[in-house]
Amino acid sequence: xxxxxxxCCVFVTLAAAVCAQDAARGTAQTPAPAPTPxxxxxxxxxxxxxxxxxxxxxxxxxxxxxxxxxxxKGAFKKLCVSFRVALHCPGRQLxxxxxxxxxxxxxxxxxxxxxxxxxxxxxxxADGETLRLGRMELVSQGVGENWMDEKSKETLQLxxxxxxxxxLARANRVEFSVGKTAFALHDKNVAALRDMNDRIKTPQTTAxxxx
Length: 211
Known about the structure:
Elements: H1 2-29, E1 44-49, E2 54-65, E3 70-71, E4 74-75, E5 80-90, E6 99-108, E7 121-126, E8 129-135, E9 137-143, E10 152-160, H2 162-170, E11 174-178, E12 181-184, H3 187-198
Antiparallel strand pairs: 1-2, 2-5, 3-4, 5-6, 6-10, 7-8, 7-11, 9-10, 11-12
Helix pairs in contact: 2-3
């Protein structure tokens, strides 16, 4: 009787061990759930520019605000700000970013909202840290796309180091000021910057820097 009881105990122990191994094997073979896509509303594209010999990750034009722009004399009325951002990776690869390009477009019926040469300094504040990024270049300045449109449309652009872009993408709050105008990025704008950086296969710890 003792022998029979001992054999039963051994059998139960072996069965439990086999079940535990099967459960562990099943857990190991179960793939991890895919990360939830970031819903920021921006359109991000990756393409190779054969002329410049670089791969570019581009955030297409995205609205920032049409009512939250401040000026020296108070808030501008009906001044819309949108931005585009591009990450420039030399060659056909997504592991090293040479620089980033920030493009801002201002549209307003107030033609005084334009930025003369001495009012194009771009400054960012990322989670309280002030980043003086430099003077933006004028890309275009004129009226809106519609021939009957009386609104002023101005586009400015600046190239910044990748590590500066990282500070913007990793911040919880980002504010920009260009000359006499100041505005904050919305959460979706910052989420789009993070999404861009996630396209880099091996995020850099230091930037290549330079233009």
